[in-house]
């Protein structure tokens, strides 16, 4: 048990069972990124999945829009401790994008426009656990929040939900991505506080 | 590398910085030292066991067990309110860190450095300025610091002293300028950012820190002026 901080607690936040440990609720939508915001026109946007054989499946924006999209309402949790409950997204499930992918690999490196990367285990991407999202609250996703499209992996800390996503490269090992090389956990489960190395 | 642990910390000093901000020096036995630009997590525990955690940038760097934070009170902020208004020397809390390996300055890098701060975004950048001055190594530094008014500037006297040395400092005032100020008052636009920063052909390493809207505008202006986005590092305080 930590030593208590004299006089602390007067302005405590409401607690909520939907909040993982160490998180607090926010009503606005903070922006945290490692560099300037890339602005990618949809007619230049493409998304690809690359496997161990070098096979590469690619979707243009129009092709992504032609796929079945889902409405997703979910809580999101940032490693910087804000959580936002009941956020509303629209996107294409990774299950749809992986439908024709043949692989025996277990891990993925997610690549973004602007150079950002993050590693995610394949089991965290499939079975209705992640989406390529292009709408937030019924509006096209703002570039600050990763538009035109970002990955959405709501059960992991939000740095795994790569903004400006451009592709997924399957990999044999769980090699670290950008923040993972800079001190953050390889997996990032908010409920067990997998924040740092 | 092993995961950082929570470490007991005691407030050694608490000094007002502005009307709504305070500089805290924490004594942290066993603190391993930190690089300029890193941050730490603070955990507060109420008598009944209720806890709250937040991240704060560190204004100090290098070895030693005294760690300096500068905290700006956030509207309705439970932790910032406590740190700015309530905590006194001798009070206890816990810290975890140092954290972050990206928004840091490497004193061995001879590149010109451009710092762009909005409000309390000065804190990690001040750590870099102090390291540059104390070490006497590294390339030339410039600071562009945007504040609402002179009274809102954290570390104003220290920054003015740096400006009389070999650090180039440009102030920008968004609401009210001090008496005798000849420049414009208002939010930084692309023209002001370009005028007060290293030109792209100097290939500076740029660190931008502040509230989201400020960082977005400044980083966009730098990219539009021709800077390589991969050499523009940003740290956004998240709120609008």
Explain how this protein is built.
The complex is a heterodimer of chains A (197) and B (240). With 197 residues, chain A is mainly β. Chain A is built from four helices and eleven strands, in the order βββαββαββαββββα. Chain A has a single domain (42-192), classed as Sulfite Oxidase, Chain A, domain 2. In chain A, the strands form two sheets. In chain A, strands 1, 4, 5, 8, 9 and 10 form a six-stranded mixed β-sheet that branches. Chain A has a five-stranded mixed β-sheet with strand order 3-2-11-6-7. In chain A, strand 8 (131-136) and strand 9 form a beta hairpin. The longest helix of chain A has 5 residues, at 61-65. Chain A is globular. With 240 residues, chain B is an alpha/beta fold. Chain B has five helices and eleven strands, in the order E-E-E-E-E-H-E-E-H-E-H-E-H-E-H-E. Chain B has helices at 78-86, 122-135, 156-163, 190-196, 212-224, and strands at residues 7-18, 21-27, 39-45, 51-57, 66-72, 92-99, 113-118, 141-147, 168-173, 205-210, 232-236. In chain B, the strands form two sheets. A six-stranded antiparallel β-sheet of chain B has the order 4-3-6-1-2-5, covered by helices on one side. In chain B, a hairpin with a 2-residue loop joins strand 1 and strand 2 (21-27). Chain B is globular and about 55 Å long. At the A-B interface, helix 4 of A face strand 3, strand 4, helix 1, strand 6 and helix 5 of B.
């Amino acid at each position: 048990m930590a030593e208590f901080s004299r006089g602390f607690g007067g302005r405590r936040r409401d607690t909520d069972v939907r909040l993982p440990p160490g998180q607090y609720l926010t009503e606005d939508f903070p922006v945290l990124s490692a560099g300037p915001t890339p602005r990618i026109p949809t007619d230049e946007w493409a998304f690809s999945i690359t496997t161990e054989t070098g096979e590469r499946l690619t979707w243009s924006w129009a092709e992504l829009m032609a796929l079945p999209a889902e409405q997703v309402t979910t809580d999101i949790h940032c490693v910087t401790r804000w959580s936002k409950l009941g956020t509303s997204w629209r996107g294409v499930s990774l299950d749809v994008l992986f439908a024709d992918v043949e692989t025996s690999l277990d891990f993925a490196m997610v690549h973004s426009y602007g150079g950002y990367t993050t590693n995610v285990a394949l089991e965290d991407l499939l079975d209705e656990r992640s989406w390529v999202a292009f709408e937030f609250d019924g509006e096209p996703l703002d570039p600050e929040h990763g538009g035109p499209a970002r990955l959405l992996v709501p059960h992991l800390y939000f740095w795994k939900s790569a903004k400006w996503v451009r592709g997924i490269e399957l990999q044999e090992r769980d090699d670290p991505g950008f923040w993972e090389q800079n001190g953050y956990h390889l997996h990032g489960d908010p409920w067990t506080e997998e924040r740092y190395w | 590398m092993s995961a950082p642990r929570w470490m007991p910390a005691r407030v050694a000093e608490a000094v007002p910085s502005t009307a709504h901000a305070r500089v805290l020096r924490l004594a942290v036995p066993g603190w391993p030292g930190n690089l300029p630009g890193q941050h730490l997590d603070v955990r507060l525990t109420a008598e009944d066991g209720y806890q709250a955690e937040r991240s704060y940038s560190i204004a100090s760097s290098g070895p030693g067990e005294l760690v300096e934070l500068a905290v700006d009170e956030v509207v309705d902020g439970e932790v910032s309110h406590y740190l700015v208004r309530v905590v006194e020397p001798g009070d206890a809390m816990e810290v975890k860190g140092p954290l972050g390996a990206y928004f840091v300055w490497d004193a061995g890098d001879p590149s010109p450095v451009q710092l762009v701060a909005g409000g309390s975004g000065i804190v990690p950048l001040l750590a870099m300025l102090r390291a540059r001055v104390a070490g006497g190594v590294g390339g030339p530094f410039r600071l562009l610091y945007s504040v609402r008014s002179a009274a809102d500037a954290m570390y104003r006297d220290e920054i003015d002293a740096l400006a009389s040395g070999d650090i180039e400092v440009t102030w920008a005032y968004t609401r009210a300028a001090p008496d005798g100020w000849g420049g414009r008052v208002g939010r930084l636009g692309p023209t002001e950012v370009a005028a007060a920063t290293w030109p792209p052909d100097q290939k500076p390493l740029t660190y931008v820190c502040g509230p989201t809207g400020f960082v977005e505008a400044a980083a966009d202006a730098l990219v539009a002026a021709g800077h390589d986005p991969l050499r523009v590092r940003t740290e956004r305080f998240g709120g609008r």
